[in-house]
Amino acid sequence: MNANNLLSLGLTALIIASTGCASIVSRSNWPVAFKSNPPGAEVVVADDSGKELHRGITPVIFKLRSGQAFFASDDYQVDLKLPGYQEDKGVLKANLNGWYFGNVLFGGLLGLIIVDPMTGAMWRLPGEYNVSLAPESVMSDGTNSVTQK
């Protein structure tokens, strides 16, 4: 093997060793479909500090990042409203991405403790957020009564 081949082999090994498995086969930003039953609800997605990131009418797809900081997943507050139905508030949580463990075989230590945690690729968001909205109950005097969950 000549020097050029050794150099090419060494550079290829360095590139492979410096990447994370989840970063290679997965992503850091995930499309999430927000759906409601009945459809047509206003959905607001906010970060964990309450800052609004997205607003739309169901069904709608928003692209959300899965990692917020080094080794920290990103979670979102979700609020759905539709006239005649109870407001629904929930949390969309990122979970550990199964591809993250591919670093044990392919990405190496650098991918496991640096690349995937830094890029957010070690986390995964679900593809859908589905809510069945409960109708508001109407009292005998004609006013609406909202039952808290």
What does this structure look like?
With 149 residues, the chain is α+β, with helices and mostly antiparallel strands. The protein has one domain (20-127): Immunoglobulin-like. 21% of the residues lie in helices and 37% in strands. The protein is built from 3 helices and 13 strands, in the order ααβββββββββαββββ. It has helices at 3-17, 21-25, 108-119, and strands at 29-37, 42-46, 52-57, 60-65, 67-69, 72-73, 76-81, 88-92, 95-96, 123-124, 128-132, 137-138, 144-145. The chain has a 4-stranded antiparallel beta sheet, with no helix packed on it. Strand 12 and strand 13 (144-145) form a beta hairpin. The longest helix has 15 residues, at 3-17. The protein is elongated, with a radius of gyration of 22 Å. Mean pLDDT is 74; it is low at 10-27 and 145-149.
Shape: elongated
Percent in helix? 10-25%
CATH architecture: Sandwich
Low-pLDDT windows of residues: 10-27, 145-149
Please give the number of β-strands. 13
Total helical segments: 3
Instruction: Give the count of structural domains.
Output: 1
**Estimated share of beta-strand residues:** 35-45%
| Order of helical and strand elements | HHEEEEEEEEEHEEEE
How far from one another are the termini? 70 Å
CATH class bucket? Mainly Beta
Helix/strand/pairing category? alpha+beta
